[in-house]
Amino acid sequence: MDDFMKPKQIAKICVDAAMTLGLLFQMGYHLWGDTAHEWVGAGLFLLFILHHILNWRWWTGLFKGKYTAARVLQTVIDLLTLAAMVGLMASGVILSSKVFAFLHIRGHMAFARRLHMAASYWGFLLMAAHLGLHWGMLLGMARKAGKTKLSGRANLPLPAWIAALIAVYGVAAMVKRDLTTYLFLRSEFVFLDFSESKVLFYLDYLAIMGTFIFLAYYGTKLLRRRKGRNTL
Asked: Could you please report the per-residue DSSP string of 155-220?
């Protein structure tokens, strides 16, 4: 098998995959309990730090080069994701009754709960969009891996119409679960069904993730095509 990925690139993919799966798991915290939620959250905190260490060149290049429409979109999504994750981690530490209880942080609990609720939902959607920005690169690696393992017979990426159906299902799942209420803090609490099926819950949230991957991926492609037409 050809060596098509460097160790650092593999590490980045593993960290990002672990963060994505961890945040997806966290969205169903009522299905697993507070202890699991806090420990996975602590793990996400460490992965978040490691992600920025591995991608330190992004910071050094932030004020270099030309900002096209696609790059502006990518940078805005990246910075909003960063803000949501910082808010999520900070509020999680304040609210912790187990993992970070030794810090004895008290006060501002009501604010921390509201911040944690908004940051968790915004962070989930923004992380999905962030993933969508790099979806082309991931598809390219999938194709290369498939050709290496299956002698070129693999056709790994989903057809666009299937991706569109997943995106539509994701929108319906957002409406069903009333996500806008929590995104815009129109409620003080999240209304949860502790008896619902884990499989159905995560199918909904995978579809919601697919919606924002779809929007970011095809939105970026559209912006790049428009730039290409304007330069002709």
From this structure: --SPPHHHHHHHHHHHHHHHHHTTHHHHHTT-SSS----TTS-HHHHHHHHHHHHHHHHHHHHHHH
Residue 45 has what pLDDT?
93
Contact 38, 96 (CB under 8 A): yes
pLDDT tens-digit readout, 183-199: 999 988 888 888 999 99
Residue 146: the pLDDT is 59
CA distances for 154 relative to 9, 81, 147, angstroms? 22, 33, 6
Q: How far is it, in rounded angstroms, from Cα 95 to Cα 92?
A: 5
Contact yes or no for 219/76 (Cβ under 8 A): no
Q: Domains of the chain: which residue ranges?
A: 7-56+64-230
Q: How far apart are CA 38 and CA 17, in angstroms?
A: 19
